[in-house]
C-alpha cells in the first residue's frame, strides 16, 4: 500500500513537471517509450503502479491521506510496537481490533502509573513484563515523589509481593571476570556466562572509543553549520551506554552544550539517563567497551559497610585491587589535581602519597614527651 501510494505521487509529480501535450498524453496511456524523456518514463511508472494496486486485496480501498493510511494500518495490524505513553493514542483509532497480549520491555524502569497506560487497552487477556528490578529503577527527579514510591515499577511491586518470575539466566555482555561479583552478590550465582564472552577475542578491553568521539563531533559540527545557515531550531541527543564515552563526548561538545543560543541544543547522556527523552536528532555511540574500573577511596568504601565494601574486598581477594599512589603517573596526576583544587590538607597528611613517595621526610609534632 505504501509503495502504491508512493508510485501514485511519483506519477503526479512527473505530470506536474512535464508539459503533456496530446502526444505526451498518448504516451502516458500507452506502453510506448521515448528514450531520455521524462514522459517516456511514465508508462513504466503506470505499469508498476497498476501491478502493485492489482496485488492488493479488492475488499478495501487504498487510503490516499497519510493519517487515513496510518489508521488503516493500525486497524488491521495484529502486532504493534510503541512506547508506553504513545499507546494511549490507540484508544483514538476507531475500529482497532482488540489486542490480547501486551509485552512491556524494560518494565522495571517504567513507573507504575506509566504501566497503567497500555494496560487500559481493551481486550487484553495477558501481560508479560520483561525487566530486572535489581538494576536501575525508574527516573524520578522530585525527592518528594521518590519518597512516596512514585518511582516504583509495577514489575518491582509484583516481585516484592512474591509473584513468580522466570529468570533469563544467561548474560552475553560482561567478561567473566567482571560478571563474577554481580552474579554472586545479586543473583545468587543463578546467572551463567554466554559462550561469546568466554571467547578469547572478548578479552581485548577498551575504555572508550575516541574515533567515535571524533565522528560525533564532526556530525554535530555539520548540524550546527546547517543551523547557522537556516536558523531552523534543532535539538540533538547523543547517547552512549558507557559513562567514559559520555564524558569524552560531553567534553568535546562543551562549546555546543554551553551555548546560550536556544535554537540549537545538544544533550549528551547515558542510555539510562536518556530514558524517556525525545530529540530531533539522535546519535548513538556504541563503543563496545568491556573493561571495568571502579575509582574511589578504599578506606571510605570499606567503612560504609554496604555492597561497596564487598566489592572492594572481592577485588583485593582476586588481586584486582590497585593503589593509585603505586603508579607514578597516577600519583603525579592526583597530586596536581589536589593542588589545583587547593586541597593542601590532603597532601599534608603524613599518610598521603606525597609523603610516601618522598625520599626525605621531616615530621613536626607538639608532643615533646620522652619515650
Automatic annotation (TrEMBL):
Domain DNA2/NAM7 helicase-like C-terminal residue range list: 203-288
A GO MF term: helicase activity
Domain of life: Eukaryota
Chain ranges of the DNA2/NAM7 helicase helicase domain: 68-143
One Pfam family per UniProt: AAA_12
Protein name: Helicase MAGATAMA 3
Amino acid at each position: 500500500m505504501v509503495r502504491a501510494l508512493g508510485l501514485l505521487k511519483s506519477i503526479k509529480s512527473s505530470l506536474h513537471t512535464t508539459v503533456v501535450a496530446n502526444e505526451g498524453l498518448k504516451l502516458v496511456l500507452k506502453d510506448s517509450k521515448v528514450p531520455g524523456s521524462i514522459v517516456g518514463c511514465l508508462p513504466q511508472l503506470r505499469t508498476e503502479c497498476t501491478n502493485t494496486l492489482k496485488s492488493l486485496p479488492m475488499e478495501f480501498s487504498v487510503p490516499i491521506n497519510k493519517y487515513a493510511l496510518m489508521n488503516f494500518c493500525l486497524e488491521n495490524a495484529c502486532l504493534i510496537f510503541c512506547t508506553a505513553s504513545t499507546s494511549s493514542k490507540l484508544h483514538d483509532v476507531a475500529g482497532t481490533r482488540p489486542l490480547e497480549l501486551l509485552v512491556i520491555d524494560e518494565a522495571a524502569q517504567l513507573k507504575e502509573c506509566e504501566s497503567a497506560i497500555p494496560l487500559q487497552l481493551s481486550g487484553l487477556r495477558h501481560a508479560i513484563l520483561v525487566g530486572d528490578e535489581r538494576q536501575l529503577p525508574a527516573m524520578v527527579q522530585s525527592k518528594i515523589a521518590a519518597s512516596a514510591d512514585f518511582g516504583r515499577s509495577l514489575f518491582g511491586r509484583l516481585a516484592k509481593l512474591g509473584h513468580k518470575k522466570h529468570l533469563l539466566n544467561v548474560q552475553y555482555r560482561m567478561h567473566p571476570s567482571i560478571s563474577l561479583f554481580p552474579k554472586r552478590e545479586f543473583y545468587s550465582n543463578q546467572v551463567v556466562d554466554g559462550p561469546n564472552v568466554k571467547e578469547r577475542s572478548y578479552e581485548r578491553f577498551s575504555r572508550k572509543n575516541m574515533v567515535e568521539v571524533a565522528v560525533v563531533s564532526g556530525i554535530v559540527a555539520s548540524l550546527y553549520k546547517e543551523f547557522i545557515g537556516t536558523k531552523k531550531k534543532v535539538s540533538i541527543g547523543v547517547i552512549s551506554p558507557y559513562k567514559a564515552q559520555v564524558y569524552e563526548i560531553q567534553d568535546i561538545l562543551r562549546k555546543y552544550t554551553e551555548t546560550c543560543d536556544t535554537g540549537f541544543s545538544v544533550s549528551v547522556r547515558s542510555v539510562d539517563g536518556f530514558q524517556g527523552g525525545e530529540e530531533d536528532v539522535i546519535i548513538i555511540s556504541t563503543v563496545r567497551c568491556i573493561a571495568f574500573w571502579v575509582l574511589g577511596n578504599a578506606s571510605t568504601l570499606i567503612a560504609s559497610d554496604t555492597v561497596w565494601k564487598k566489592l572492594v574486598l572481592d577485588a583485593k581477594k582476586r588481586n584486582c585491587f590497585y593503589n593509585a599512589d603505586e603508579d607514578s603517573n597516577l600519583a603525579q596526576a592526583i597530586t596536581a589535581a589536589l593542588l589545583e583544587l587547593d586541597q593542601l590538607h590532603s597532601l599534608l597528611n603524613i599518610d598521603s602519597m606525597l609523603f610516601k613517595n618522598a625520599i626525605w621526610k621531616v615530621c613536626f609534632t607538639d608532643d615533646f614527651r620522652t619515650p
